[in-house]
Amino acid sequence: MTYTEIKKRNDKRYYYRVKSIRKGKKVEKQRIYLGANLNKEQLKKLEEQATKKLATKHIYYKEEIKEGHNEKITFNINKNKNFYKWYTDIVQKEELADLRSNIKEAIDFQP
How would you write the pLDDT of the chain (111 residues) with one tens digit per residue? Predict the structure, then answer.
């Protein structure tokens, strides 16, 4: 479910596009900041862009029970067995950093 959340602070309205995802008994929310004190036209345009981005922004994982304990497998990679590959895939998928650097194993984090 995607909706717009408005937070009021000090006479300003901050707008966020929010997507709720149910994972078992818990609900996880993914938010994208749209801006502050937006008019209707700006808000509508930014909502459409954020909705498209939220539709493609997912961290897929499944839990496997092995030998009496749970292991999270994200992107079909076991975190405990190959942490570097697991971490790099999450950073790329969520667009948290630019990994196109020519320096081996260097990560340029985005603002």
Answer: 788 999 998 889 999 998 888 777 888 888 888 889 889 999 999 898 888 887 776 545 444 444 445 555 566 677 777 787 777 777 777 777 766 666 666 666 666
Please, what's the b/e burial string for 79-99 (b: 16 or more CB within 10 A of its CB; e: otherwise)? beeeeeebebbbbeeeeeeee
Return all residues near 5 (Cβ < 8 A) that are at least 6 apart: 15, 16, 17, 18, 31
User: What is the CA 42 to chain-centroid distance, rounded?
Assistant: 23
Report the alpha-carbon distance of residue 16 to residue 26 in Å, rounded. Answer: 21
Identify which of 44, 14, 45 has the alpha carbon closest to the alpha carbon of residue 31.
14
Give the predicted TM-score (pTM) of the model: 0.51
